[in-house]
Amino acid sequence: MPADLVTVAEAATVLGLSERTIRAAIADGTLPAVRIGRKLIKVSVADLAAFVRPVAAAEVELSEEDRAAVAAIVAAAGPLSPEARAELRRLLPPALESRVDGVAC
C-alpha cells in the first residue's frame, strides 16, 4: 500500500477534525479520496495538505453591499440539500474570481 495514503481516521487525527467532517469533505468533493476494496477509504497526503490552506484576507473581507447580497440569496434559497451545498461550493469560487469591483469580466 502506498505510504502517501492515510485513512479517514488518520486524516482526522492529523487535522484535529472529526472523522465525520473528513467524510463530509470527501462526499462534497472538497477532499479527494480513493476507495480500496468495499469499505476502506484513503486520502493522499498531498490532497490533505492542499485541503488545509491559509485564509487570505480577500476571502473574509466583504463589502456591506456584498454581505447584503449574500444574505438575500441565502434567505431566498431556504434549506439546501447536501448536493446543492456541494454544487454551490463548486460554482461560487470561479464566479467570484470572474468579477472585478462588482462587474462581471
Concise summary:
With 105 residues, the protein is α+β, with helices and mostly antiparallel strands. The chain is 55% helix and 14% strand. 10% of the residues are buried.
Overview of this protein structure:
The structure is a single chain. Helices cover 55% and strands 14% of the residues. It has 105 residues and is an alpha+beta fold. It has 2 domains: 5-51; 57-100, no CATH class. It has a 3-stranded antiparallel sheet. The protein has a two-stranded antiparallel ribbon with strand order 4-5. Helix 1 (8-15) packs across helix 2. The chain is elongated and about 50 Å long.
Keywords:
6 helices; elongated; single chain; 105 residues; 2 domains; two-stranded antiparallel sheet; 3-stranded antiparallel sheet; alpha+beta
Compile the SSE list and pairings.
Layout: E1 5-7, H1 8-15, H2 19-27, E2 34-36, E3 40-44, H3 45-51, H4 57-60, H5 64-77, H6 82-97, E4 99-100, E5 103-104
Antiparallel strand pairs: 1-3, 2-3, 4-5
* Structural class computed from helices and strand pairing: alpha+beta
Overall strand count:
5
Instruction: Give the neighbour order of strands across the main sheet.
Output: 1-3-2
State the end-to-end distance. Answer: 46 Å
Number of domains: 2
On the 0 to 100 scale, the average pLDDT is: 77
Major sheet summary line: 3 strands, antiparallel
Q: What spatial form do the alpha-carbon principal axes imply?
A: elongated
- Measured by DSSP, the beta-strand proportion falls in 5-15%
Can you give the helix content as a percent range? 55-70%
Low-confidence stretches: none
Work out the helix count.
6
